[in-house]
Every structure is written in structure tokens, then in C-alpha cells.
Amino acid sequence: MKQWYESLFENYARKYDNEPFVQGTVGECDFIEAEIGRDKSLKIIDIGCGTGRHSIELTKRGYNVTGIDLSDSQLAGAREKAKAAGLTIDTFDKLSIDPEHGRRVDFQKHDARALPFVEQFDLAIMLCEGGFSLMETDEMNFEILKSAARALNGQGKLIFTTLNGLFPLFHSVKEFYESAAKEGNSACKNCSFDLMTFRDHNTVVFEDDAGTKKELTCNERYYVPSEITWLLKSLGFKKIDIFGSKLGAYSRNDKLTTEDFEMLVVAEK
User: Rounded distance, CA 113 to CA 115, Å?
Assistant: First the structure.
């Protein structure tokens, strides 16, 4: 049986790119570049890359990127966007090559809980809930973090965003989704936040790329900073910084507060 996140992304690449929460790519990549000192020799893995927005932008800036996703539809959308961005596609329809810099983005289908990479990357990014926090159990979510850590070399860095568990303690998740809803985009209803599990159960209503209207029963895990810190330390990360996550404007100057719907995590081995 397919999980809700698998069904959601079956045929949702074009509509997904119109969602308001994926419009901050350039500013987010500015932050990523600053975090790695603009060292274009580094290898980057984008876990839960979706339609490749960060992967493609970083490739255009001269980096070697491997984009990973579970959805064939999202990966097909990523390759289409790579072509539209002027990157050329090889005969295997996997590698998008930046002719100016000779860098490449390699889109591959993998489950984020079981990545086949061991100490191959300098940086892992996992943004906009690209897998982590969507899984149906805490153990599965932890497998994603473990898999990301395993893919990094001994000096590797992990940058990711996740839902801020402090937010629903002071605010209504239902009201937040209602305030963020826009005509033509997906919408969440019937939100119910469980204080015992820190999971929000809701129904997402959306229209896929074929114009078919769908409703899916979802649940997402919210994390508090102390949980994230403990999980990452158990995986060998030595330095862990957590900030507020602002769309398109990630910054180390943004202290995490109860007003932030998401948190930005930067962890170093």
C-alpha cells in the first residue's frame, strides 16, 4: 500500500512548482554557498530533491550535485527543468551538464532511508521536508538522518529544514495553513495536532498535473530542537546549530522562536 507522500507526488511536478513554499530557491542557495565557502570542488547530495530546484540552481553556479528522490514524476520534472535551464541531458537521460562550468547534476531514484552512498559527499541538503519528517514512524525518519550521515565524508556537513515542534504549542496549525492557502494551490484541512506524538494529522486537498482533484490523509512529525540535537549527536555530528527558517532568506542571524513554522539545521561532523 502506498503511503500518502508517495501518492501525493505521483503526478504533481508542475503544480508543485507553483506552491508558495518552493519560491525561495535563489536565496536558499545563497546561504548554502556561504556555508561551504563557495568551494566548487565539493560534492553535494540533494536528498528529496523533488523537481530539482536546488540541484539545478547549484549546478548552474558550478557545483557537482546528485539529486535524489523517490518519485518518478518529480525526477521527470527535474530533468525537464534542467533542459529548460540550458543544461544538456546525456543519452541516459540522467546527467544534466552545465556546459559553462562542466559541472553536472545526476538525478537518481532512491529511498532516502536506504541511500547507496558511503562517505561520498561533502555536503548533504534536505530542504522543504524533502523526506525527513514525512515518514510514518520516528524510526523511519531517523533512518533518513542515518542514511544522510552515512553518505557524508568525515568532514561533511548536513543542512536541512524540518517542522518546528515549538510552533504548534503556541499556535494553531489549522489557522496557519488557512492563512497560507492560495487559489489553485494545495490546501490542508481537518488538522489535529497530537501532543503525545508531536504529529499533525490532516487532509491535503489538491489538483494533480492531469487536473484530477484528490484528497489524502496525511500526518507529519514536528521536532523540538533538543530532539534534533540528540539525534544528530548520536550519528556523530559534533557541531549542531539550529535557526529559524525563513523562505528564501536562510540566515544564521535568525534565532529560532515559537513563531517559526520550520527550523533550519546546520550540522557538521
Answer: 6
* Residue 62 cell numbers, joined: 558550478
pLDDT for the residue 210: 80
Judged against a pLDDT cut of 70, whether residue 95 lies above it is answered with no
The predicted-structure confidence for 197-222, as pLDDT tens digits, reads as follows 999 998 988 888 788 888 888 899 99
Mind listing the pLDDT tens digit for each residue in 216-255? Answer: 888 999 999 999 999 999 999 999 999 999 999 999 999 9
For residue 203, with 0-12 CB atoms within 10 Å meaning exposed, 13-18 middle and 19 or more buried, which class applies?
A: middle
Question: For 212, what's the count of Cα atoms within 13 Å in the CB-facing half-sphere?
Answer: 10
Reported as a single tens digit per residue, the pLDDT across 3-13 is: 867 777 787 77
**What residues contact 6, with CB distance under 8 A and at least 6 apart?**
70, 71
Helix 53-60 × helix 72-84 angle, to 10°: 30
DSSP string, 30-57: HHHHHHTTT-TTSEEEEET-TTTHHHHH
Nearest to 132 by CA among 156, 152, 112, 158: 112
Would the CA dihedral through 27, 28, 29, 33 be positive or negative?
Answer: positive
Distance CA 45, CA 156 (A): 11
Residue corresponding to grid cell 486537498: 205
Question: What is the distance between the alpha carbons of residues 191 and 245, in angstroms, rounded to a whole number?
Answer: 22
User: What is the full DSSP assignment across 117-171?
Assistant: -SS-EEEEEE-SSSSTTTSSSHHHHHHHHHHHHHHEEEEEEEEEEEEBTTHHHHS
Q: Per-residue pLDDT averaged across 52-74, rounded?
A: 93
Give, as one character, the DSSP assignment of residue 102: T
Q: For the chain, percent helix, then strand, then coil, each to nearest 5?
A: 30, 30, 40
